[in-house]
Design a protein that fits this description.
Elements: H1 3-22, E1 32-35, E2 40-47, E3 53-59, E4 64-69, E5 73-78, E6 84-89, E7 101-107, E8 114-124, E9 127-137, E10 144-153, E11 162-165, E12 170-174, E13 193-198, E14 214-217, E15 222-227, E16 233-237, E17 244-249, H2 267-273, E18 283-285, E19 291-297, E20 308-313, E21 318-324, E22 331-337, E23 345-350, E24 356-360, E25 379-385, E26 392-394, H3 407-414, H4 416-419, H5 443-452, E27 458-459, E28 462-463, H6 476-488
Helix pairs in contact: 3-6
The structure holds heme C.
Protein name: Quinoprotein glucose dehydrogenase
Organism: Sphingobacterium gobiense
InterPro entries: 6-blade_b-propeller_TolB-like, Cyt_c-like_dom, Cyt_c-like_dom_sf, Glc/Sorbosone_DH, Quinoprot_gluc/sorb_DH_b-prop
Length: about 500
């Protein structure tokens, strides 16, 4: 071969290698198009067969989606090739029900060491903990140099949590109240709080309370945290049987739990908080929807969604678009996508180019009817598109409250997430209402349970792990309608309850 040919051959090889690395994006089939007012979006499945992806982050150096799975794996989805790579497995994660590897935040500055912050539950002897760790994040290869920044009490539920890093290089950690009523209002406890740390885990000098991580308090179990490009911090949070919330976080504010649920609107709540200044949510939902991850959308790519919060929901199985006011202080509109189509949705992230990635959570502890599918769990992508593919979906606006006389609608709104549409419950977690002695039994005892809830009882020699919240916030007519609905459905044949006054039971 002449030297010239060798040279050409060599260049071809280099060009070939180069095009493999930088190559154009692999296109996947579009599942649906979403028609907004003017724009069309396409929905694609970017990764399948995952196991409860919990948090999604954008890795700008690798152009990839970095994600945690609840069992302890950290994986990376390459945006162009769609390949999923296992980066590392966190050794001491304790996974059970809602516990495990949860929120994370990727800090990736120019020309400095990148860090990955992780929040996860661990167990030592019989004690459960929530941990905040920092790892060195290497663009290639595994995580290294783990540093435990904080360890706080955990529990079998309510461990939060999410992490976010602000442009001024502060780490915000949203912690759960560890199902302990005294923590959230105690400013010396780190549970039920927004905590603020320096990148190395030390306490920032300008924190609102000197020598304390505590930035804001009065939280139950936050599941979403995002920092807007306008510099506003938002959370999403699970209420008990009522009042799921979106909060706008300000230093030193008290968000009320467990004294107040949602806004301070009942006489009991007003009496409890008296002179305390309680910061109320900017949005709340009853019946609850189980809000999870949130991400601020500030891109021009989808003009209809610019300046909104994207919210994934578990119980409601939807992606919601919450339109913000110009100053970001109010939610002025709400639209619902994919309800009951993709199952439970856990986390969402927006990319600098305006693409949106979000994931399902159908292999978690509380799968809904028809899920998981063979391909679950899935990471989906929403992207602006110039053509429409059938079937075309439209965003919906939220429905009004179910009517007091519609037993099925009330049951779906308040009971299905635990006892399921068919009344069969979930093995060892939620008891069946089908053929239940209590449901078919004495009226007062049954109404008492629906009004005030129960926990820790043994039913037909099974001890259930879940907690039954009380529904005393419903009207008498609603309580009677739901109770009658469960007495004559799922194969139950009990007599109808006629009396409409529950005063003596309230
Ligand atoms: C967050 C989950 C959850 C929701 C929502 C929920 N329940 Fe329950 N329910 C439970 C759990 C857990 C138990 C068992 C508690 C125990 O073992 O002490 C239970 C027990 C019951 C029982 C007693 C069953 C028996 O056989 O003894 C009845 C009746 C009941 N629920 C009705 C309802 C109705 C009606 C609704 C809706 C208005 C509802 N529940 C909503 C979790 C839930």
């Amino acid at each position: 071969m002449k030297p010239q040919n060798i040279y050409i051959g060599f260049t071809t090889i280099i060009l070939f290698l180069f095009s493999c690395r930088q190559g154009s994006e692999k296109e996947l089939p579009v599942m649906n198009s979403i028609q907004l007012e003017n724009s069309i979006l396409s929905l694609t499945k970017e990764a399948t067969n995952l196991n409860v992806p919990w948090d999604l982050q954008y890795d700008r150096i690798n152009d990839a989606i970095l994600f945690s799975e609840i069992g302890g794996a950290i994986r990376r989805l390459d945006i162009k090739s769609k390949q999923v790579l296992l980066i590392d497995s966190i050794p001491d994660v304790y996974q059970q029900r809602t516990l495990g590897l949860l929120g994370m935040a990727l800090y990736q500055p120019e020309n400095e060491q990148a860090y990955l912050y992780l929040s996860y539950t661990s167990k030592k002897d019989s004690s459960i903990f929530s941990n905040l760790y920092r790892y060195n994040y290497n663009p290639t290869g595994r995580l290294s140099n783990p540093v435990q920044l904080l360890q706080i009490p955990g529990n079998t539920g309510h461990n939060g949590s999410r992490i976010v890093i602000s442009p001024d290089k502060k780490v915000y950690w949203a912690t759960g109240d560890a199902a302990t009523d005294t923590y959230a209002q105690d400013s010396t406890s780190l549970n039920g709080k927004i905590l603020r740390l320096n990148l190395d885990g030390s306490i920032p000098k300008d924190n609102p309370i000197a020598n304390s991580y505590v930035y804001a308090w009065g939280f139950r179990n936050m599941q979403g945290l995002t920092y807007s490009t306008e510099g506003i911090l938002y959370t999403s949070e699970h209420g008990d049987a009522i009042e799921d919330e979106i909060n706008l976080i300000l230093p030193l504010k008290n968000y009320g739990w467990p004294l107040v649920e949602g806004t301070v609107d009942t006489d009991e709540e007003k009496a409890k908080v008296k002179s305390l200044a309680i910061e109320e949510p900017i949005k709340s939902w009853t019946p609850v929807i189980a809000p999870a991850g949130i991400a601020y959308y500030g891109s021009d790519a989808i003009p209809e969604w610019k300046n909104s919060l994207l919210l994934t929901t578990l119980k409601n199985q939807s992606l919601r678009v919450l339109t913000l006011s110009d100053d970001g202080r109010d939610i002025i509109g709400e639209q619902i996508l994919f309800q009951n189509i993709l199952g439970r949705l856990r986390s969402v992230v927006t990319l600098p180019n305006g693409d949106i990635y979000f994931c399902s959570s159908n292999r978690d502890w509380n799968p809904q009817k028809g899920f998981p599918t063979q391909e679950d769990d899935v990471i989906y992508r929403l992207r602006i598109s110039d053509k429409a593919y059938a079937p075309i979906l439209h965003a919906q606006i939220p429905q009004t409250q179910p009517e007091a006389k519609d037993g099925q609608a009330l049951y779906e709104a308040y009971c299905t997430s635990c006892h399921k549409s068919d009344g069969e419950g979930l093995t060892n977690t939620f008891p069946p209402l089908a053929n239940s002695k209590t449901v078919n039994g004495e009226e007062k005892a049954l109404l008492q349970i629906v009004l005030h809830g129960m926990q820790g009882k043994t039913i037909e020699s099974i001890k259930y792990e879940g907690v039954m919240p009380g529904f005393s916030f419903l009207t008498d007519a609603e309580i009677i309608t739901i109770t009658n609905y469960i007495r004559i459905n799922f194969g139950n044949h009990a007599s109808e309850i006629k009396s409409t006054s529950l005063k003596s039971l309230r």
